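Bumping my old thread because nobody answered last time. Still need a sequence for this structure:
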């Protein structure tokens, strides 16, 4: 059993509070017959342009309605060329009848504002779709909870009809059906023919929404643990045929993991908000579970642009128990801790369990305590972007874009991982030199580096998967250089502790022993080949950095002075 629910913990100071609607609001006759009541006053936004051709993956983000037009963190600060989809957060469902809660609800007011119209026009000009988050949350186990009631077919029919009218009037492109609940047996007294479980009611609701909107974009945000057993509120396999994407909320895992191995804390202790691996609930495991059930092309890895912090006992170690003053903090605030008032003795670290997430401690005179925080910086986010590429997921998403705003490092990381012709992947290892690589075939790549032990390490790629790192030994005093003169042949060269050039080669099956080419080099070697059994190696020598060439002619090596005075 999953047992885990990952929710949007809107305790951030800048987040709009989730409103739990228990009123019996009924729209006026005019509003009931025309759910987009008031929208006729808005200007018509520009239509959606051609899809953004720069992006190889979907880049999806929620935005808090209260920050939508903020010049510092809202849409004016974003790089729309790196965005596929933006979800306006949020419009709230009245569980009593299924209608959308109108003004004075803040989300409703912003949705019907000129700020929204201008935002949609800007997004559409870049080919970025806009959708609206339709929200109803209730985690209680009551058989008459708000989700059970809101998902009665009579009520959800109202939700569908009004949502479609609002989408049409706003000129936007779809919805995020953002319902969060526990799977419970609902009270069937009001409607004996309705499904019993909240899970089945939600699945039927999504199917009905798709039938009513056959071409618009439908996203469903889901808990990161929902695919562990697929027995909870979200029926992952049942929902998949009727939606375009899952936004898997792979965050707030710290609250699910603190009592689990390896931490086993009796009360909340700090740990990664969205761990890469190791912990019971982690990004890698969650994505494996989802893609085992549904196509990878329907899965968006949801990531947090926020962290957690609070008072702890001292400056370390990691995973200290929270003593007081817990808060969530935006990426912008978490990443600039060094410049904030009252901060001293700042120590920045990587989580010892997943090796990736940033955690920091400092003395905070404003709070009068040691504080610890966890958040995902660009290094941590980048490694999880690699998971998206390696597993061929639909894309990555964020809660929320306004928590990161225009931070250039965030947009640069998205650009490097998802907008370049060839994506960046982590190959792992700990290198003490620059790498060199070569290829002996159309799908073959071999990369070489010097490790922290000064030995040469090698990792092959077969066109689909990377092999394991292997040590080829030696004690190198330079970067390696690699070259291939034909299929299944790879040669590499380094400078040794004797300043001579040393060489090993592979026939595609086994590696040769080390061979000394001699010489006294004052630089790292570089190698080239213009045909089978031909190798040329170049170094600078002790003769005022003159250039020397070692040539293999298929039978033997020979050194030749090329002369000159090299400066590189």
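Sorry it took so long. Here it is:
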């Amino acid at each position: 059993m999953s047992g885990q629910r990952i929710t949007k913990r809107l305790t951030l100071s800048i987040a709009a509070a989730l409103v739990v609607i228990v009123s019996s609001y009924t729209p006026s006759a005019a509003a009931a017959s025309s759910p987009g009541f008031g929208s006729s006053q808005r200007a018509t936004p520009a239509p959606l342009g051609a899809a953004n051709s720069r992006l190889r993956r979907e880049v999806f983000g929620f935005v808090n309605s209260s920050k939508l037009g903020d010049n510092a963190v809202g849409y004016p600060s974003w790089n729309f060329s790196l965005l596929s989809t933006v979800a306006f957060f949020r419009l709230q469902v009245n569980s009593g009848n299924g209608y959308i809660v109108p003004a004075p609800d803040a989300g409703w007011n912003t949705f019907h504002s000129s700020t929204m119209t201008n935002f949609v026009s800007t997004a559409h000009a870049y080919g970025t779709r806009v959708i609206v988050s339709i929200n109803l949350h209730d985690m209680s186990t009551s058989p008459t909870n708000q989700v059970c009631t809101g998902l009665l077919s009579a009520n959800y029919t109202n939700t569908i009809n009004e949502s479609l009218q609002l989408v049409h009037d706003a000129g936007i492109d779809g919805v995020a059906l953002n319902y969060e609940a526990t799977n419970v047996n609902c009270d069937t007294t009001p409607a004996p023919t309705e499904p019993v479980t909240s899970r089945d009611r939600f699945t039927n609701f999504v199917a009905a929404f798709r039938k009513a909107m056959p071409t618009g974009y439908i996203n469903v945000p889901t808990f990161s643990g929902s695919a562990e057993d697929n027995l909870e509120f979200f029926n992952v396999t049942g929902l998949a045929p009727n939606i375009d994407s899952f936004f898997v909320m792979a965050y707030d895992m710290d609250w699910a993991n603190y009592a689990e191995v390896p931490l086993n804390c009796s009360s909340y202790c700090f740990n990664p908000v969205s761990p890469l691996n190791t912990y019971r609930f982690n990004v890698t495991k969650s994505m494996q579970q989802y893609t085992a059930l549904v196509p990878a092309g329907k899965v968006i890895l949801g990531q947090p642009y926020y962290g957690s912090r609070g008072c702890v006992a001292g400056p370390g170690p990691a995973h200290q128990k929270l003593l007081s003053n817990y808060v969530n903090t935006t990426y912008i605030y978490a990443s600039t801790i060094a410049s904030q008032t009252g901060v001293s003795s700042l120590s920045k670290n990587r989580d010892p369990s997943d090796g990736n997430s940033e955690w920091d401690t400092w003395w905070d005179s404003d709070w009068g305590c040691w504080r610890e925080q966890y958040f995902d910086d660009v290094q941590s986010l980048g490694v999880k972007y690699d998971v998206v590429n390696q597993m061929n997921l639909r894309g990555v998403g964020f809660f929320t874009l306004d928590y990161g705003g225009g931070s250039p490092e965030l947009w640069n990381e998205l650009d490097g991982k998802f907008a370049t012709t060839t994506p960046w992947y982590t190959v792992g290892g700990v290198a003490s030199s620059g790498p060199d690589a070569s290829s002996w075939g159309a799908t073959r790549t071999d990369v070489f580096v010097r490790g922290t032990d000064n030995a040469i390490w090698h990792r092959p790629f077969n066109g689909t998967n990377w092999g394991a790192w292997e040590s080829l030994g030696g004690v190198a005093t330079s970067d390696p250089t690699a070259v291939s003169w034909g299929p299944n042949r790879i040669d590499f060269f380094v400078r040794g502790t004797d300043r001579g050039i040393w060489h090993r080669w592979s026939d595609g099956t086994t590696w040769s022993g080390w061979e000394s080419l001699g010489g006294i080099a004052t630089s790292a070697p570089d190698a080239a080949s213009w045909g089978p059994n031909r190798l040329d190696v170049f170094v600078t020598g002790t003769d005022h950095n003159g250039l020397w060439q070692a040539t293999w002619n298929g039978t033997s090596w020979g050194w030749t002075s090329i002369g000159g005075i090299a400066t590189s």
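The domain at 436-563 is CATH 2.120.10.70 (Neuraminidase). Let me know if any region looks off to you.
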